[in-house]
Design brief:
4-stranded antiparallel sheet, alpha/beta, 10 strands, binds adenosine-5'-triphosphate, 278 residues, binds magnesium ion
Length: 278
């Protein structure tokens, strides 16, 4: 733990660095001094991060350090937890998503989320993908949108002849790609992924990792993973979070993934990525 110099622990992401090439307001998603509370418990504190457009940023750190909490703050999913409260700033294209005038439903459309466990609706493959667009009153060609989304999610060839079958009839890896298709069908700009491959076998995992590389051409991706090989392989930037004595998670180090994994600046980061704790 960074007990000897707690100030430095949060200085790294706040100072100009590899992911940080401009003032506040220049990135798709930024946080400044963000804390998230559950009741009186501060689960994460002073998170200042900037996420580059069309890049993949991995959030890593031991269980309970607040990765999912941070991710949920980015599209106001924390609103659904009655005790949760966010302090500090969370900027989407320079606008604070917690301003009173902001519609959380619109935030969630533009900042989509894929969860750890594939969670297709008990509906047809087609309806899973069309659902969000329907709700948003999409007026274009729905068949076309469904096909495009499934193609982008690298699932089209496997399901094109059975679009009316239940999404739940697919394999786990296919279900996760279906959930990705459902997320991108509403044309988000950012896709948040919370351990999207932890329920999948190695082949399905690689498939999703390849897909994520494709998706970054169109989307900004923020991914939580416990899999160090995955973070090293699949991301451009990495933020390492850890807990302090109060169990509040904070960003210990943030930078270009290759640097974090080959030349970590902080001993805690090194200990974590080499499997010495967590
Ligand atoms: N709904 C909630 N109500 C109260 N406390 C919560 C809630 N969700 C998470 N917490 C607490 O906030 C802290 C951070 O949890 P979070 O789920 O964000 O961690 P995590 O890094 O995603 O962990 P894991 O790697 O196990 O998924 C933990 O101490 C957890 O117990
Ligand atoms: Mg989590």
């Amino acid at each position: 733990m960074a007990t000897e110099d707690p100030g430095l622990a949060i200085a790294t992401p706040a100072a100009p660095g590899p992911g940080d090439d401009g003032a506040l307001g220049t990135h798709a998603m930024e946080t400044a001094g963000m804390s998230v509370f559950y009741g009186s418990f501060r689960a994460v504190k002073d998170v200042s991060l900037k996420f580059r457009d069309h890049k993949i940023t991995a959030l890593i750190g031991p269980s309970g350090c607040g990765k999912s909490t941070v991710l949920r703050a980015f599209n106001r999913m924390n609103d659904l937890i009655p005790t949760a409260r966010v302090e500090g700033r969370v900027l989407f294209h320079g606008n604070d998503i917690y301003e009173e005038s902001v519609d959380p439903v619109e935030v969630r459309r533009r900042v989509g989320m894929v969860f750890q466990k594939p969670n297709p609706f008990p509906k047809s493959i087609y309806d899973n993908v069309a659902w969000g667009a329907k709700i948003n009153g999409y007026r274009g060609d729905m068949d076309d949108l469904v096909e495009r989304s499934l193609r982008q999610a690298a699932l089209w060839d496997e399901v094109k002849d059975k679009l009316d079958q239940s999404g739940l009839s697919l394999s786990g890896g296919q279900q996760q790609r279906l959930c990705i298709a459902r997320t991108i069908a509403v044309k988000p700009e950012i896709v948040l992924m919370d351990e999207p491959t932890s329920a999948l076998d190695p082949v399905a995992t690689l498939r999703i990792e390849e897909l994520i590389q494709e998706l970054k051409k169109h989307y900004t991706i923020i991914i939580v993973t416990h899999n160090m090989q995955q973070a090293a392989r699949a991301s451009d930037f990495t933020a390492f979070l850890n807990m302090d004595e109060d169990r509040a998670g904070q960003v210990i180090e943030f930078g270009v993934t290759a640097e974090i994994f080959t030349r970590p600046q902080r001993k805690e980061t090194e200990d974590y990525i080499t499997g010495r704790f967590g």
